[in-house]
Amino acid sequence: MKIVIIIICAFILILLILGLYLSFTLTRPKRDSLEYYHKINHDNKMDEGIEKLKRTKFELTLRDGYLIHGEYSLNQDSNKYVILVHGWTANREAMIPQALVFYELGFNVILYDNRAHGENVHNATTMGKLESLDLNEVIDWTYKKFGKDIILGTIGVSLGGATVLLNLKYQKNLKFVISDCPYTNSRKLGIEILNSRHLPGLLLIEFIEFWTLIINHFSFKQTSAINRINDNKTPIMFIHGKKDTFINMHHSIDLYNKLECKKKIVLFACCKLRPKLPL
Q1: Measured distance CA(245)–CA(259) in Å, rounded
Q2: What contacts 3, CB < 8 A, 6 or more positions away?
Q3: 207 within 8 A of 267, measured Cβ to Cβ
């Protein structure tokens, strides 16, 4: 009996340690530099026309004192604006290809680094909980700086795709939202990723969330985009790659089916670059 108790305690200890490691990996990932995405964009010819962007840097101190870095490029005599939100481990430079498309369409483009990413202080990311509030402050800053009568929308990728959806709880005046490869909630995504690595997802996710609650004070329930869009009226477009091996396309499909507002979904045969996981 004593041996059984020791084995059980050892097993739980291993799960706690592994959960702590995975929680740390999730909330404090190894982030890529602006130079890294500048090179990717250039090598893949995704930055053609970048010289047209008149990039003005800005800094914004958020409600909790955290400082984020961003930039905007203005289109002469245009009252159309779009805020671009990057994904996990990435930074604002990763959104340059999308920014160029919107700039050519006559939009003023605003990019910024999510907390814990890019040029910002490297603390914890919360998978959309705080990031959606941060986006809300960027939106308020945009209205204050450029006027409340502007046409404003948001586009996000991956973590950014979930963030722009979570933000709809706070913003009702946006003209459109584009969510590229979002997740319905980070708990479900975490289980799928763990299972794909031949790990017990349903078991490990409990220990990961145990540590995110203790250390970073958020639960996966607070990152559930699918529970935030029930009464949404803002038009939303979903984009997803059919061969996406990081966030399965069913996340976008489930979100799309949940909505009753004006909506559209586009599924592409290709897949985007994905962050490397230490698993």
Answers
A1: 24
A2: none
A3: no
Residue 132's identity, in one-letter code, is S
Nearest alpha-carbon partner for 156 in 141, 174, 172, 140:
174
Nearest one of 131, 133, 101, 98 to 113, comparing CA atoms: 131
Q: State the Cα–Cα distance between residues 36 and 42, nearest whole angstrom.
A: 10
**Maximum pairwise Cα distance, the chain:** 78
Give residues with Cβ within 8 angstroms of 33, minimum separation 6: 91
Q: How far from 128 is each of 18, 34, 183, 224, 276, CA to CA, in Å?
A: 23, 21, 10, 9, 20
The C-alpha atoms of residue 214 and residue 208 are separated, in whole angstroms, by 10
d(CA 98, CA 103): 9
Cβ atoms of 95 and 111 closer than 8 Å = yes
Locate 80 and state its tokens: 């159309």
**End-to-end CA gap in the chain:** 34
* pLDDT for residue 279 is more than 50: no
Nearest to 156 by CA among 141, 147, 168: 168
CA distance 66 to 126: 14
Q: Where does the pLDDT of residue 4 fall: very low under 50, low under 70, confident under 90, or very high at 90 and above?
A: confident
Name the CA dihedral angle for 229, 87, 82, 146, rounded to a multiple of 10 degrees.
100
122-177 pLDDT, tens digit each: 999 999 999 999 999 999 999 999 999 999 999 999 999 999 999 999 998 999 99
Statement: the pTM of the whole predicted model exceeds 0.90: yes
Residue 202: CB partners within 8 Å, gap ≥ 6?
A: 191
